[in-house]
Amino acid sequence: MSAVLEAHGLGKRYGRRWALRDCTIDIPEGHVAGLVGPNGAGKTTLLKLATGLLEPTTGGIDVLGGRPAAGPAQLARVGFVAQDTPVYAALTVAEHLRLGARLNPGWDAALARDRIAALGLDPGQRAGRLSGGQRAQLALTLGLAKRPDLLILDEPVASLDPLARREFLQGLMEATAEHRLSVVLSSHLVSDLERTCDYLIVLVESRVQVIGRTEELLAGHHRLTGPRHDPAAPLLDGQVVSARHTERQSTFVVHGDLPGLGPAWTASPLGLEDLVLAYMDHSRLEAQR
């Protein structure tokens, strides 16, 4: 299976500050990949590098087998919805569709027209008078009607209310299944990724902490709870992702096969949010050492 996005040693620096550093990623085609991390982790920088809006300081990145934004053919294969789902406030919905048709050689007018009708959007309504959820749906329609091989979404629902967010993500999943898109969806809202993504990248403090198929990552991680364990004493050989201790109890998130620690210890599976938070915690503890 070929990759839709590959990065090796990728980094972007602004002056002395690294926005992204030593980033190595391989996202296979046919997945909805969730890119998650706290604000300032480097998610937007990575996606701007993938779309050719930024040039890397170190390393390299390939998108659909080529350099990002290398030419018209490459640009036509990638759809991008930036943060805040930008649209032109003074243009009507219909004018947005006509602009999309002029700018994109593979434009699917029927898809755009049918989707706008299904959403109940008035073609004569100016975008500036639409609700936040409607603007997001218009931006998604523009990205889908381009008929890209890869759709990149940079926190498109962060400012939406829960109902609008659910409707946007439902529309995205329906379009993904219908048109067999590969998607990279950035968000700091793990619940959104849990509903939509089958591939996961956790990015913390400009570095990739874990990457892989969501199902496999969840199956390979466990929570261990037991009696207080000396934090300075090794519990496992390099498998501890995060550790928390109270006066009487220790809780570890571990990656790999479960060790035999005796009947006093309990193992339980992790949810996606637990997994993400464990790697965020791991990064914080590593920085303190």
TrEMBL record:
ABC transporter domain boundaries: 5-230
Coiled coil: none
Superkingdom of this protein's organism: Bacteria
Pfam name, any one: ABC_tran
Record keyword Chaperone present: no
Signal sequence interval, chain numbering: none
GO terms for MF: ATP binding; ATP hydrolysis activity
The UniProt record lists the keyword ATP-binding: yes
Keywords: ATP-binding, Nucleotide-binding, Transport
UniProt-listed PANTHER family: ABC TRANSPORTER ATP-BINDING PROTEIN ALBC-RELATED
Protein name: ABC transporter ATP-binding protein
Organism: [Actinomadura] parvosata subsp. kistnae
